[in-house]
Amino acid sequence: MPGVAAVDGPEQRSLDAVYFDTDDLALARIGVALRRRTGGPDEGWHVKTSAPEGRHEYGWPLEVEVPTEVVHAETVPTEVVPAEIVVPADVRAAVAAWIGDAVLAPIARVRNRRAAYALRNADGALIAEFTDDRVVATDLVREVETAWREWEAELGPAAPPDARGRTAFFDAVIEAVRAVGGRPAASESKLQRALGR
Fold first, then answer.
1. DSSP class of residue 39?
2. Which of 22, 53, 142, 170 could lock onto 102 through a cystine, CB 3.0 to 4.6 A?
């Protein structure tokens, strides 16, 4: 990979995410994901959005005060999702423009055994993180489980500063993945794949 002088890892992580949406999947339809994830260095609540200029992610800690709604076990099988999940007020406010006062409920659970590799430059700074994910996902609405393996590269603080450099880096990643039999992902996100999209 361009600029990569050393690779650290793998760091093993066990990730467990529950995704929320409205009954009519208002968030998923516009490319927004709301999840509560445990495990890994960024565990917490996340809202991820897609836009022409790229993806954006906003986060909150796992325990946020002032819950707005409680989802009870009757909505999903108890063996799949904890009996009670609280959607914090700050998190709900972040998606209110898209859903108004609609009820949020769990729609998918994604469990992931991740091996993370740090790609570093000659100074030891992080250019990117490459992850090897073994995913088991459950569509909680249809009660359908799927499993797959997925690789992903995410830029770090020492990534190429310009668009040309970033493109060259990702081109090299794609070439390396194809050289060992990899192919483009079937869906844009783990949530979309979990929901069969």
1. S
2. 22
Residue-level pLDDT at 151? 94
Residue 43: give its domain's CATH number.
2.40.320
Residues 116, 120: Cα–Cα separation, whole Å = 13
Number of domains in the chain: 1
**Range of the structural domain that residue 188 is part of:** 6-194
Of 2, 46, 14, the residue nearest 189 (C-alpha) = 46
Q: What is the pLDDT of residues 135-194, one digit of tens each?
A: 999 999 899 999 999 999 999 999 999 999 999 999 999 999 999 999 988 788 888 889
CA distance 195 to 197: 6
Side-chain-side CA neighbours of 117 within 13 Å: the count stands at 12
**Rounded Cα–Cα distance for residues 33 and 48 (Å):** 5
Q: What is the pLDDT of residues 34-76, one digit of tens each?
A: 999 999 988 999 999 977 666 788 999 987 544 344 443 333 3
In a domain, 1, yes or no: no
The whole-angstrom separation of Cα 66 and Cα 92 is 11
Number of DSSP helices (H) and strands (E) in the chain, helices first: 4, 9
Report how far residue 84's alpha carbon sits from residue 70's, in angstroms, rounded to the nearest whole number: 6
**Any domain includes 146:** yes
| β pairing state of 126-139 and 33-38 | unpaired
Q: How many CB atoms within 10 Å of residue 105?
A: 19
